[in-house]
Amino acid sequence: MPVNPVWLGAVLALTPGVVRADPAPTPIPTPVIPFRVPEFPQALLLSGRPFPQVTPVKAVLAKPDRTLFVAAKKGDGGASGSGDGSEGSPFHDLQAALRALEPGDRLRVGPGDYAGPIRIDETCKEGTRRRTIQVVFDSRAKLAPGGGVGAAALTVRRAFWHLSGTYVSLDQSASPGIAIEGDAHDVLLDGARVSGGAGPSVSVGGGTVAVRVANARISKSRLERSNPDAVGIAVLAGARDTLIANNQLSENPGGSVRVQAPSDGGKPASAVQVVGNSIRDDAATAIDVEAADGVRIAGNTITDSPTWSGTRGIALGSVRRAIVRENAVTDVAIGIQVGEAGEGGESREASGVTVDHNYVVETVSVGTGVRLEAARDTRVVHNVLERVGEAFAIAGRPPRTQGVTVVNNLAVGVAKVGFAIDDPKSVLAFDYNLFSPASEGVTARLAGREMPLAKALEEGKMSHSKVARGVRIQNHDLARIEGAEVRDQGSTLGGFPHRGSAPDLGIEER
Asked: How far apart, in whole angstroms, are the C-alpha atoms of residue 51 and residue 329?
C-alpha cells in the first residue's frame, strides 16, 4: 500500500532524552489494571495482516544516576513523615520526594494511596535531554484529587520528566486527573491509568512543547452523569508538538481526544499527532480537532454503538494541513467530517486536508461515511466505505467549500445515497469511484436534485465511476474485493505511487 512520507516527522518518534536507548535499560514494570478497560478485538485485515497496523510505543528508562524511594505512610495517605529516600528508609511525603529529585534521578513510588494535589512545579528541578527525571509508580500506588477546587490530582510544569505507570482514581470529581501545563516541555506520560472524573483525565496545556501521552488506559465507565467536559485527553490551544499514541480509551462522554479551539486572537495547537489509539463507546465525537495547524490522525480504531445518534468518529474543525489516514471507524453517525458549517452563518473551515486509506463501516441509520461541510483543497481518496447510509456528502458552496477531490474510493453496500453535492463548482474532481448499492432505490443528490445514482454519475460527467451490485469484502479483508474489478481502475494522484497501469480502487494497492 502506498504511504506518503510523514511531513510531521516519524509517527511514533519520541523526543530524545525523554525516551532513549541506553546500554543498560531497565524495563518498566507491567502495571496491574485496577479497573476494567475493555479489550479491542481486531478482526479487520488487509492482505491477511491486521488493519490498521500499529507500531507499539516502547518507552525505555535510561539507567539512573541514583534511585530514591517513597512509601505511603499507613493511616495518613503518605502525607507526613520523612525518611532519607533510601530503600530502607523511604520518604513518606510524595511531594517532598519529588522536590528532592535531581537530573538523572529515578523515584520509585511504593504501594498505597497518595492524596493530591501533587505538583511538579517551580519547587522541583528540571531534567535535561540526557538526564531525565524519572518517576515510576508501583502498580498498587494510587493518586486521588485533594481539596483544591479544580486542581488536578497531578500537575507537571517542568521539563524532561518521564512518568511511568501513574494511576489516578477520580471517581465523580470534576478535577482533572493529570495536567501538563505552563512551559513544560519534553514530558513523557507512559502507561498512565485514569478512571472516572467529570473533567479531563489528561490535559495538555497551551504553553507546552513535545508532550507525549502513550500506552494509557482511560475510562469513565462509572461516571454517574454524562458531561461534555468529561474528555479522555484534552489538548489545549497553543500546545505544540503533542503526540497521543497507543492509548486505550473508552466511555468518555466528552469524547476520547479533543484538541480545543483558541479564544479570539489566540493561537491554535500545532503539530498534533493522534496515532494508534483504540477508542470505544464514547457516545460522542471520538477524536474532535476543533482547531489546529498541522495534524496527523492515523492508525486509530474507533467503535461506538449502533443505537446512538449524533456520534462522529473523527471531526476536523478549523484545521490547516491535516492527514487522516488508515483509521477504522465503526458504528457512528458520521465516520469522518471535515469542516463545520455551524449556526448563524459562522463556520469552522478546514483547508489542506487529505483523507486517505480509511475504512468506515456501519454508519448509524442514515449516517454518512465522509462529510465535507466547510472544506477547501481537501482530498478524499482511496477509502473503503461499507454499509453506510450515505457514502459522501459535500455541503456548502465556494468559497466555504471548494477545491474538493473525491477519487479512487470504494463504497460497498450503500443503503440510501451514493453521494450528495450541494454545488458542483465546489468540486475539483469527483470520479473513479465504485458504488455498490444495497438496493435498487439508492439515489444521489446533485445541486439540490435527487435522482438515481447511475443517472447522477452521467449528469455529473463522472464517466470513470461505476455502479455495480453485489460487491463484497471477503472475510473482513480489505484486499479481497469480490464482485467487481478494482485493480488498475483508478486515477493517478500526486503523492500516491501505484503498481500496474493505474492505481487500484480502495485501500490496498494489489
From this structure: 11
- Closest by alpha carbon to 211, among 244, 187, 184, 228? 187
pLDDT recorded at residue 191: 97
Q: Are 368 and 343 in contact (CB under 8 A)?
A: no
Using the predicted structure, report yes or no on whether residue 330 has a pLDDT greater than 90: yes
CB 324 within 8 A of CB 354: yes
User: How many Å apart are CA 352 and CA 270, to the nearest integer?
Assistant: 14
The pTM is what?
Answer: 0.91
Task: Supply the mean pLDDT for the chain.
Answer: 89
Q: Cα separation of 180 and 183, whole Å?
A: 9
The pLDDT assigned to 16 comes to 32
* Whole-angstrom distance, CA of residue 251 vs CA of residue 461: 45
**Alpha carbons 329 and 83: distance in angstroms, whole number:** 52
The type of residue at 209 is V
Task: For residue 319, count CB atoms less than 10 angstroms from its CB and return exposed for 0-12, middle for 13-18, buried for 19 or more.
Answer: buried
Q: Which residues contact 182 (CB under 8 A, 6 or more apart)?
A: 121, 157, 205, 207, 208
Q: Please, are residues 308 and 282 in contact by the beta-carbon 8 Å criterion?
A: no
Q: How far apart are CA 431 and CA 460, in angstroms?
A: 9
Cβ of 67: how many Cβ atoms within 10 Å?
16
Identity at 325, one-letter amino acid code: R
Share of the chain above pLDDT 90, in %: 79
Closest CA to 486 of 392, 413, 412: 412
**149 pLDDT tier (thresholds 50, 70, 90):** low
Give the cell for residue 41.
478485538
Sign of CA dihedral 501, 502, 505, 510: positive
The model's confidence at residue 506, banded by pLDDT at 50, 70 and 90, is: very high
Looking at per-residue pLDDT, the higher value among 346 and 383 belongs to 383
Phi and psi angles of residue 475, each rounded to the nearest 5 degrees, phi first: 55, 35
> What average pLDDT does this structure show over 30-44?
51
DSSP string, 323-354: EEES-EEES-SEEEEE-B--STT--B-EEEEE
Q: Following CA atoms 352, 356, 359, 361 in sequence, which dihedral angle do they give, to the nearest 10 degrees?
A: 40
Look up residue 39 and give its amino acid: E
Assigned C-alpha cell, 9: 516527522
CA gyration radius, the chain: 24
> What is the rounded distance in angstroms from the CA atom of residue 130 to the CA atom of residue 198?
37
DSSP 11: T
Which helix (H) or strand (E) segment holds residue 96: the answer is helix 94-99
H-helix or E-strand spanning residue 95:
helix 94-99
Output DSSP code: residue 6.
-
pLDDT of residue 75: 57
